[in-house]
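User: Hey, quick favor. My workstation is busy. Could you predict this chain's structure for me?
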Amino acid sequence: MANPFRKRSEWSRYGAVVFISIVLLVIDSTTKWLNGPRNVLSIVLSPVQALASVPAQVGRFFTPDLTAEADLDIAYDNLRNEYFKLKSETLLLRTLEEENRDLRALLDATERLQEKVTLAELQDVSLDRDNHRVAIGRGLRDGVYVGQAVIDDKGVIGQVTEVMPLSSIVVLITDPGHALPVQVERTGLRTVVNGMGSVSRLRVPYLNQNADIQQGDVLVSTGMGGRFPNGYPVAVISEIETKEDEAFIEVTATPIANLDRSNNVLLLSREAKEPLINDSLSNGEPSDQ
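Assistant: No problem, here it is.
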């Protein structure tokens, strides 16, 4: 015969666990009290994360494209790092070549910004319908900060939303809650792209029926908001649907970055440089930057 007091005790313990969980969720969402314990826990669990990545590392070790020779591994890592850095620098060439240098010197007379690049490796990927996030192996010790822009060798990936000592969380541009200011490269038309919960589709809302936009148009970041630098490729217009009696057209775009296939990403940080006009005056000649 079942003991009713034992069942009651089990339900009491279950209720206590549920109550404590709810209290912790409320504290975490309204205060920063749990940031310290979370950071300590992330450090404690880092050996577990490293152990969990061992099977993937062993699998990569035995792939046909790699050998066990140490010198070849070192050469491969060096070439990979150089490739990503060079790729990030060339993404802006097309946009920069079209700008008027003298006009840009006047508009940016107060301050110029230059991006620094940090290579990071993906540790975990979460791509369910309502949550598009990835974990990367860079954190507070590497100078990562909330709001930092993240790209790959093709285009914009997303931005950092949470930073821990040894790792960080990046929300992708396809996350349903993410919005990014962009402009049409061909016409300069400014708009935004919203995530739709799909790694292959973005929504471009609030475009009028007479908006100058067409399939194949490239969308690039505008720099508005101060998080994503200006001129980085974001998406390509893939579908335009016009409906009668509707004020806006339905536009979707395809992300340019390899959101579900990248193993490495680049973190962009910006450093202020001296004002251009002051530089040109001190040199006694006009600036061409």
